[in-house]
Amino acid sequence: MPQPTSESSNPTPPNRREDDALLPRLQAGDPAAFEQLVRDHAGRMLAVAKRFLRSESDASDAVQDAFLSAFKAIGSFGGTASLGTWLHSIVVRASLMKLRTRRRRPEQAIEDLLPQYTADGHRVQPGGGWVPAVDQLAELEESRSIVRRCIEQLPSQYCTVLLLRDIEEYDTEETAQLLGINANAVKTRLHRARQALRTLLNPYFGETAAAGGPAGP
After folding, report:
1. Does the chain have fewer CB atoms within 10 Å around its N or its C terminus?
2. How crowded is residue 98: how many other Cβ atoms within 10 Å of its Cβ?
């Protein structure tokens, strides 16, 4: 199978009709159809994997694992979702598996990034103002690299929940299933991750957002 790269994909994602036309050939074991599948989807799958894995080689390995899983399971794929959606879920799972098995890096404690309060309830270090939602910032080209660096500073369990919920847009129950935790744990981690990310983003966006955006969370 070709090594996935960001250039492996067509610039325009295949539509549902194109995927549906490819499916019978895939299920018949047509090698050319598998090559087409890689060309159509590898670039976008690599981009997803790189959001979870900081290493290009780890992300590439996750995409390779995802395609192998997809090829093994293609015979049972019922087509209720598009091939792109199906492959997206597979590469997310492959990336999470890669995260679980690789050596953990030293991490900053989440408590260091959360708001601190005095005994009478006043915030010790007030934030710089309103910060846009993670998904809104991520849509702005000039903001993406900053947001990405800040997300990467979060401890892995909080980073992963934030990526699944706010970037990949999985709901709470889906995120819980992917991570093997309960829904309440997802909500708690997500709340703390958003608070911590707000602390990290404030130096970059707090003052500007406060001047031009609404006050509040």
Report:
1. C
2. 18
Q: Is 59 helix (H, G, I), strand (E, B) or coil?
A: helix
Pick the closest to residue 82 from 32, 133, 40, 111 (CA basis).
40
Beta bridge partners of 123: 117
The reported pTM is 0.73
What type of residue sits at position 139?
E
Query: Would you state the structure tokens that stand for residue 172, as one six-digit string?
Result: 């709470």
Tell me the per-residue pLDDT of 78-128, one tens digit each, with 9 for 90 and over.
888 899 999 999 999 999 999 888 655 566 676 666 666 555 554 555 444
| One-letter amino acid for residue 43 of the chain | G
**H or E element: which one contains 159?**
helix 156-162
Per the DSSP assignment, residues forming a β-bridge with 117 are 123
Rounded to the nearest 10 degrees, what angle do helices 141-152 and 183-201 cross at? 120
Report helix, strand or coil for 153: coil
Instruction: Tell me how far apart the alpha carbons of residues 20 and 117 are, in angstroms, rounded to a whole number.
Output: 55
